[in-house]
Write a structure and sequence with these properties.
The chain is an alpha/beta fold and about 280 residues long. The chain has 10 helices and 11 strands. It folds into 2 domains: about 80 residues, Leucine Dehydrogenase, chain A, domain 1 (Rossmann fold); about 120 residues, Rossmann fold, CATH 3.40.50.720. Helix 2 packs across helix 10 and helix 6 packs across helix 7. The protein starts with a strand and ends in a 5-residue tail after the last helix. The structure holds NADPH dihydro-nicotinamide-adenine-dinucleotide phosphate. The site of NADPH dihydro-nicotinamide-adenine-dinucleotide phosphate has 26 residues, from helix 10.
Length: about 280
Amino acid sequence: MGKIIDGKVMSERLRDKINKEVSAFTKDYGRPPGLAVILVGEDPASSVYVRNKERACKNAGIISFDHRLPTETSLTELTSLVKELNLRQDVDGILVQLPLPHHIKTDQVLMSIEPTKDVDGFHPYNLGRLLMGLPTVIPCTPRGIMYMLEAYGVDPDGKDTVVIGRSNIVGKPIATLLTLAHATVTVCHSHTKNLEEKVRNADILVSAAGRPHMVKGSWIKPGAVVIDVGITRDKDGRLSGDVDFETAKDRASLITPVPGGVGPMTIVMLLMNTIMLAKGHVA
Ligand code: NDP
């Protein structure tokens, strides 16, 4: 049976380091790092994510400035709030929870965030720097995945790697980071022909499709490393990943569970990005 990559334990260990960094920052600068969190509307999954992020900030000693806006908020109202937060000295990072209601143009909102406060790393300036291999704010989920690979001694150099998903927040940035780490990356999506054949060739598989149990255990190359980003909640509230964990775990050498894998690492990376921005490490 493959070894389980325990994101929960790893994130808890990192939290000690984060708490120390926050205390040191607070002592040096006379204020804690500050993260503004904006939620528009009442999407239940987004509300849970935002609550978890705010709780993680509080536990770490980071101030979260919470903004709950009604669904009917206009693009202008939202970008005005972002611009106000851009100017505040006590706000180091700004997070706009996605997805936004359909009438709001997500790109325009993300572009209104000052790149030096773009804690999620979704601004085109920061995504462009990522593509160029320059220091930048790395989106939290991809950053968490790279951290887990490194912690478990997985070097992507020369590995055949398959990424399922090409979103701007997970698929594209993780494919870029793996390419920068010298992996040979195949990006798959809903138009990909014969996904199974692609997955069977993967030394490292990162699946971020949001299709529960889509990847069967029999598709996994023996000894492969499997990172399951997908989170889907069924009608009974249970969470499932994209990978059929029970059958895949016997073939993989390392595998992340859902829940307890990528999810907790994403939140910890948000805290780390907030501290990094607070210290003004980013151009
Ligand atoms: P998106 O819906 O934006 O992207 C999904 C991607 O998967 C798309 O590129 C889509 O292809 C591709 N896809 C969908 N169905 C298939 C299929 N049958 N075969 C191959 N490719 C397919 O989702 P996100 O990137 O935002 O998130 C992906 C998943 O990860 C979700 O379950 C989300 O909840 C989870 N997530 C988990 C996080 C965590 O912390 N663990 C953080 C962020 C997301 P196409 O482009 O052609 O439509």
